[in-house]
Write a structure and sequence with these properties.
Length: 462
């Protein structure tokens, strides 16, 4: 094999034990990877790319809607668009009647351009521009107001239709949060809305909460229900609350996750890099996705009395939610081609044709942990030994590593092989991407009807 060193010459320490963290089995992804399609796409596109599976988005959306129905709760799902820039997921929202959560004028215009109605948008984010507020009101979008000065700008807009607003509440259990109105400002905002009359339609309250604890969301949601009842005394509509996102995704099995956290140490990473368990996203979650919503609804606010679902029904309050990552679970992966392999003492550095900007955990000084899958360009025998290698990007930055961890590959990687990072559609594949070094952004390939027995069909995302 020209240009390929003899694997027998690789350092013996390559076969030393290495931490593995495989993603949950995905037979559909395996079939795609074995079909030869990814190699053809890499050749035709001339660089890294992401592939998308929109039918998985449809399935996840259906699961959230089922959780609402099973709990007997009137609700609405808004897709948090910031989780992925692909147009196909916004198109699916338009086709399926789901809402979209946007936080900029660009996102709002893009959602409208992909067929989502203005009244199906919720506009979040802090300190919104006046132009964003103006277009949002014109289109009948729901605006989550984050500050008094923002509410003032909404109320001073000269529009032909009332402004639809939610008042975002500062979460007392997270006093360091920069989002939301504190108690004093919230009281003032409620009274300002009441005094504005037909100029504004105050539809309820919302919150932004970090973390993935269902009980915390239940507790705060219960508080918002009580706030709705009090606001109605002032003549306000106040018939819905938004609990935002924060529904975990379960990437890896429980046992492997526990083993990884117990065993991982600096020797598992290039340059002895140090991570603690707190640095990582919780890649295993026993309650994830739509099941996490079910847990929120079945729990009792404050740990006593009736369930949140019961309180919502009795108060006539609709539940809004804004999942991003959870709607994109298993809906896309990232594909890179290996450009070179450099030997180090006991492991190697594999360099691919993209950068770590396409795996956005690096943004949080963290690591995207599910193991990438190696797809050899040519068949080669698998032995009992593994080959340890970290994965570097193509930039001139020493810190540009897609994976600092020394992955245990089943065979030695070579230039021309592909690496597939699984399940990257949620916040990973494009949150940070930039054309650094004038490298083009990886395109997105939509794979339609991949369950068909015929060869998968693909198209570029619009």
């Amino acid at each position: 094999m020209p240009g390929h060193p003899d694997p027998a010459l690789a350092p013996s320490a390559h076969s030393a034990p290495a931490l593995a963290l495989p993603a949950h089995p995905d037979p559909l992804a395996d079939r795609l990877h074995d079909s030869g399609l990814l190699a053809e796409l890499a050749h035709g596109l001339g660089g890294p790319f992401h592939y998308l599976l929109p039918h998985r988005f449809d399935d996840n959306l259906a699961a959230f809607r089922t959780a609402l129905t099973d709990a007997g709760v009137e609700g609405r799902v808004y897709y948090a668009k910031k989780a992925n820039k692909a147009g196909v997921f916004t198109e699916r929202c338009a086709a399926l009647g789901a809402g979209v959560d946007v936080a900029s004028l660009g996102e709002l215009r893009d959602a409208l351009g992909h067929g989502v109605r203005g009244e199906d948008l919720v506009v979040t984010g802090p300190a919104k521009s006046t132009e964003l507020l103006r277009v949002a009101v014109q289109q009948g979008a729901l605006i989550a107001v984050d500050a008094l000065d923002e509410l003032d700008r909404v109320l001073t807009l000269r529009q032909t239709r009332p402004s639809r607003v939610l008042l975002r509440v500062h979460p007392g259990i997270q006093p360091g949060s920069r989002f939301g109105l504190d108690e004093e400002d919230l009281d003032e905002a409620v009274h300002d809305c009441a005094e504005a009359g037909d100029q504004v339609r105050m539809e309820g309250f919302s919150f932004h909460l970090s973390g993935y604890d269902p009980q915390q969301r239940t507790d705060l949601a219960g508080d918002l229900v009580e706030r709705c009842l009090k606001a109605r005394v002032l003549g306000l509509r106040a018939d819905r609350i938004s609990i935002g996102g924060g529904f975990a995704v379960d990437y890896v099995p429980a046992g492997e996750w526990r083993t990884f956290l117990d065993r991982q140490h600096p020797g598992d990473y290039h340059a002895g890099k140090t991570f603690t368990a707190a640095d990582f996203y919780p890649y295993h979650s026993p309650v994830a996705g739509a099941a996490a919503l079910a847990a929120v609804l079945s729990a009792r606010p404050g740990g006593h009395g009736e369930s949140l679902a019961d309180r919502l029904r009795q108060a006539g309050v609709m539940l809004l939610l804004e999942p991003g990552r959870a709607l994109l679970d298993r809906a896309g992966s990232s594909v890179f081609t290996i450009q070179g392999v450099k030997e180090r003492e006991g492991y190697s550095i594999v360099t691919v044709d993209g950068t770590s900007l396409s795996l956005s955990e690096q943004w949080f000084a963290s690591e995207y942990l599910p193991d990438p899958r190696l797809l050899p360009a040519r068949p080669r025998p698998v032995t009992a030994e593994t080959y340890r290698a970290c994965v570097g990007g193509a930039s001139c930055l020493d810190s540009d590593l897609l994976t600092w961890r020394k992955i245990a590959f089943p065979v030695r990687p070579y230039a021309g092989d592909r690496l597939v990072y699984p399940n990257t559609a949620g916040y990973q594949m494009d949150s940070n991407e930039s054309p650094f070094h004038e490298l083009p952004l990886p395109p997105k390939v939509v794979i339609d009807h991949p369950d068909d027995t015929s060869r998968p069909r693909w198209r570029l995302d619009r």
